[in-house]
Amino acid sequence: MNKEILKTGVQDFIAKNISTDIMSVLLKKPVFKGISQQELAQQIEGRKKCQKKLPTWFETPGIYFPKKVNIEQTSSEISAEYKSNIVNGDSLVDVTGGFGIDSYYFSKKVGAIFHCEIDQELHEIASHNLKSLGIKNIQTYQENGLDFLRNSVQDFDWIYLDPSRRNQIKGKVFQLSDCEPNIVENLDLLFSKSENILLKTSPLLDITMGIKQLHSIKEVHIVAINNDVKELLWVLKKDYFGEVGIKTINFTKSDSQLFNFVLSTEKIAAAVYSLPLCYIYEPNAAILKSGAFKCLGLQFGLKKLHPNTHLYTSEEPLDFPGRRFEIAKVVSYNKKGMKALGLKKANISIRNFPDTVVTIRKKFKIEPGGNSFLFFFKNCANRYQVALCYKA
Fold first, then answer.
1. Quick one: which of 41, 65, 113, 358 is 20 to 30 A from 379 by CA?
2. What pTM was estimated for this model as a whole?
3. CB 257 within 8 A of CB 222
4. Is the pLDDT of residue 321 over 80?
5. H or E segment to which residue 132 belongs
6. What Å distances lie between residue 23 and 28, 34, 71, 213, CA to CA?
7. Under 8 Å CB-to-CB from 28, ≥6 apart: which residues?
8. Using CA atoms, how far apart are residues 294 and 276, in angstroms rounded to an integer?
9. 198 and 88 in contact (C-beta within 8 Å)?
10. pLDDT of residue 169
11. Residue 102 pLDDT exceeds 80
12. CA-CA-CA-CA torsion sign (37, 39, 43, 49)
């Protein structure tokens, strides 16, 4: 960490050049004594990446930005704040502290936070930034978080982990056994220091596989932002053997879409099927990730188009955690049906359908865009259909 970067003149230069092409910065001769152009470019690029993802860090004077990869790996403020509402109590250990975003938000809910980061530079950056942000109840340690727990004589109310999903050999990984630290191998240690564990994993991790590999799972939270699943959060409670609760949330620009259920209810639920009625409903990405395909329809009074077609339908418009469309026309998927639609431009979605979007566009010369939405799907009579819809 180069403290020369924190000088007022340098900070002003970074702020004024937020939109400057990074390559042009790298190719210039050094602008400031004691600061390389690579370091200057890192600060400009890091600050720019934080503008939407981490607005508090972007707007706070004197923030030092780490390498691009560290910013890419960290939680957004939206998801960090959501996580903070899961925990409580007097103490929490952030085993893989990183840039410190999660610790910052945990500090608003928990009395004392212990932030562990093994990388010296990242530890220094997080420590400096937390002071700049005025946080006083976070203690930072340049130490392996698991070693911190092993050496501690204290028990904690919560332990939080966000294992690294980058492997030197495999590149980006998402399986629990490939992440660092390996949570499965260290569960006994974790539960010896706390009864409550909050684990963040890749959104690519299969929930069923995670349930098989972990134990004492009380809840799984699926967090999406603008219909893009960003995090899976696992709440583990020592010696817990009850039902696994699944909580989904999709943060949109205007609201938050919530849907919760108990895992066992999906297994025993019996969906009701129908051909397309007046409205079509498309679940948000968090719900699709959860696998709540039967109990979703039952909870909202909707009928499903097919066991493997995750679209729903109703006669009347209903509130729904996803997108709702009014059906204008339904045709069979063939040349005659597509000709009857007479569309040259439309948004296309496929569900349980043999052809890809690219194939459909090429075959029927349909350009992307416009206000029309075409859903291509298999119906409950095992026939392929196309529904022309408009947002409702």
1. 358
2. 0.91
3. no
4. yes
5. helix 120-132
6. 9, 20, 19, 45
7. 37
8. 17
9. no
10. 53
11. yes
12. positive
